[in-house]
Amino acid sequence: MTDARDDAVPPTSVDPTQTLDALDRARRNPDIAPADAQRLLERAHAALLAALAETESERLRYTALFDAVPDPVSILDWDGTVLDLNKAGLAAYRRPREQIVGQPIEVLNPDLPKDHMVPVWEALSRGETYVVEVANMRGDGSRFPVEVHTAGFDYKGKRRMVAVARDLSNRWTAENRYRLLLESIDVGVILFDRDMRVVTANPAAHRAIGAGPGQTVNTLLRPENWKIVDARGRPLTFREWPTTQALERAQVISNTVVGLYYVPSQRMSWISVTSVPVFEAEGTAPDYVFAMFSDVTTLKRDNVLFDRAQGLAHIGGWEWDRGRQRLYLTHEAQRILGRSPLPQTIEEMIAGVAPGDRMRLRTAVDRLIETGGSFDLELQYLRSDHHACWVRVIGEADTADPGTSRIVGTLQDITERKHAEETLRVQARTDPLTGLLNRDAILVELDLRMQDPAHASVAVLYIDLDRFKVINDVLGHAAGDELLASAAQRISTAVAGEGLVARFGGDEFLVMCNLADDAQRPERIAGAILHALNDSFRFDNEEFTITASIGIARAPGDGERPQSLIQNADAAMYDSKRRSRNAWQAFTPALAQTQADRLWMETHLRRAADNGEFHLVYQPQVDLLSGRVVAAEALIRWQNHLLGELRPDRFISHAETTGDIVRIGSWVLREACRQVAAWRDAGLGIVRVAVNVSYRQFVGEDLAEAVQRILDEFHLPGAALELEFTERVLIEDAPDTLRTFADLREMGVVLTIDDFGEGYSALNYLRRLPIHGLKLSQLFVEGVPTNHSDVAVCQAVVGIARSLGLGLVAEGVESEAQRQFLLRLGVPIAQGFLFAPGLKPDEFARRLEQGGLHPSTH
């Protein structure tokens, strides 16, 4: 590197400065003759040439001297960058100049530690030469040992270093290898004299004590800067230091953990130090002491945290050394076992286990020794104070030990958890309101009985309280809870120990009884329960009666698993409730078939909408006087690939039960509006279509918003749609109900109560809802004009509609006599087979084009 080599050339002894100054003075002095000035100029030129020649001569001498040194010589910047290298260095390293100059010193010494410059700077700052033995690397990657002498010098205000590397390949001694090892190892080594002054310290020691550039180890290790404590935090005096002890005792002090607190920076670190005394030749007392140490700060911290975590979590550690037949226990493990004296072997630890659990632990330990692996046991343990506790014992073989000579594990005090589990176990089996077994508990008991062939002959009674919801809604939940508790007590008394009684959920109870000694026990218990519930219940001076519906199922005939047995008992209960209530019903094969049919129906029904199996037919609504078609009612049909076409009475009730009616109802509403739009586009005008709306659909969605969205989709006025509701909506006198009806009426949608008279006939609610008309149920129309009761109902409904100003449509008109009766009664509109059944859209369009539907046309 030219500039570095030029910088190293010493200054010339020929200085032309004086000659140039004289020439400058002559130029400014007017009294100097031109001839004198010319002579001065020639002298200056000669002096400059002489100076240049001498400078070049000096540079050549420097270069010759630099390159004449037989050992590699490097000029280094203070940060270790190579500024120049002589010919011996180029030859030794077998690299071109440009691969070395300008690079860090690590290019020649790749094995140097990260902070290798620290001790170099320290020695040079004291004016000393730094000597180190390292392995240099040639261009082909091969290494060779060298002894490097580094000295410092200043040039032009900058600190520089010159390093001479002497090849030690021919005299690589054990001492040299030891020195190289000392410089390279990651263990701190410091040599102290008897006054505890540092003689030498390796780079690892500098790192460990935090020495920075320009700081000496002696300065850092001044006693006033440090507080030294033992492993438990007790301060140590100077005489108690491991190094002092090694000097005084003249013996090695091994593996002593001490804490070093550096006062100036308030830094705490922990080291494990071994102190070795060093004797001079023929000496009887050590003159020096080596301190070899490793930083164990992280390990010490982890151990402290581990001990604290053990105490907080009540978890202790243990180790069984089979070779030494010795059991090791942590402090927390000793506290948990509470044994005095402490167990010293695995057998002594097993002896403290409760007798019923000893064999489990013994077997687990033996199996682990034979096959490896681990074990995890919860055991009762007996302390020396005769108090029993629960411990969780985990053990596993040391994975690094092929002979399983060491078993390690943990001990955890789980006494509180076990007590809590027992409390929860009792609570988990008990219904808090009635004190009976709960659903989970009775299922477990039933499963255990049915799995045991000797006790598999059992029966279940599924009990549902009739009208409980009405009482709970009218009198409140407090009355409902009191009723359930009283009913539970009566049921338990009626069962009288002949079975297990559980509250299965809500107002449902389950009784499980044995059939082995009495095949008629279920029926007898059912009768006793119905009799026990006959007496009235009282609450806040209110008296009311509660009955029950009971279903009975026997195992294994009515079910081989608990769920199927209970499901069949539930089906029998619902059949009893449907028939009469306040009775019991046994499960039968016919009921099983009905249940299977229902399941089949519900399964296929759920897929019908997605498979496009639904379609609509349209039954005309006609003017009874003129026969003119005035509207139509959309009727859904289900075309099933197995059963053919199904009418609504075959599947709507199932859809109501499963909730599928909401999705089906939305499809019907949209499809009807689509068809009205299609007729309009075909030039038939707007035909009002009536669509039935399920009660579930009414309460399960924002009906007004859905209707408006569909009308907007097909660009239809509200008057094109008529919505028919069952009478159930009449009792929903909620603000949401009234608001929905008001929003629909504001759209122009026609609102009608379907099958009026069959249900609640809540006239008080009827006058509040903003509806347009009523539909006279087919149930009453089919009996006129011969059945006096049906005639009376029809007359009453017509009177109600007339008095409230409501429209009226009669359903199910099938004879001329019925038509004539309705005409005389004043019913304007009717529909039924007398005029037409449900028609396909194109057929309805043809009838519409004909202008009317008189009885004679059908």
From TrEMBL:
<dbReference type="InterPro" id="IPR029787">
    <property type="entry name" value="Nucleotide_cyclase"/>
</dbReference>
<dbReference type="InterPro" id="IPR000700">
    <property type="entry name" value="PAS-assoc_C"/>
</dbReference>
<dbReference type="InterPro" id="IPR035965">
    <property type="entry name" value="PAS-like_dom_sf"/>
</dbReference>
<dbReference type="InterPro" id="IPR052155">
    <property type="entry name" value="Biofilm_reg_signaling"/>
</dbReference>
<feature type="domain" description="PAS">
    <location>
        <begin position="174"/>
        <end position="218"/>
    </location>
</feature>
<dbReference type="Pfam" id="PF08448">
    <property type="entry name" value="PAS_4"/>
</dbReference>
<protein>
    <recommendedName>
        <fullName>EAL domain-containing protein</fullName>
    </recommendedName>
</protein>
<feature type="domain" description="EAL">
    <location>
        <begin position="598"/>
        <end position="852"/>
    </location>
</feature>
<dbReference type="InterPro" id="IPR000014">
    <property type="entry name" value="PAS"/>
</dbReference>
<dbReference type="InterPro" id="IPR000160">
    <property type="entry name" value="GGDEF_dom"/>
</dbReference>
<feature type="domain" description="PAC">
    <location>
        <begin position="375"/>
        <end position="426"/>
    </location>
</feature>
<dbReference type="InterPro" id="IPR035919">
    <property type="entry name" value="EAL_sf"/>
</dbReference>
<feature type="domain" description="PAS">
    <location>
        <begin position="58"/>
        <end position="111"/>
    </location>
</feature>
<dbReference type="InterPro" id="IPR001610">
    <property type="entry name" value="PAC"/>
</dbReference>
<dbReference type="InterPro" id="IPR013656">
    <property type="entry name" value="PAS_4"/>
</dbReference>
<dbReference type="Pfam" id="PF08447">
    <property type="entry name" value="PAS_3"/>
</dbReference>
<dbReference type="InterPro" id="IPR013655">
    <property type="entry name" value="PAS_fold_3"/>
</dbReference>
<dbReference type="Pfam" id="PF00990">
    <property type="entry name" value="GGDEF"/>
</dbReference>
<dbReference type="InterPro" id="IPR001633">
    <property type="entry name" value="EAL_dom"/>
</dbReference>
<dbReference type="InterPro" id="IPR043128">
    <property type="entry name" value="Rev_trsase/Diguanyl_cyclase"/>
</dbReference>
<dbReference type="Pfam" id="PF13426">
    <property type="entry name" value="PAS_9"/>
</dbReference>
<feature type="domain" description="GGDEF">
    <location>
        <begin position="456"/>
        <end position="589"/>
    </location>
</feature>
<dbReference type="Pfam" id="PF00563">
    <property type="entry name" value="EAL"/>
</dbReference>
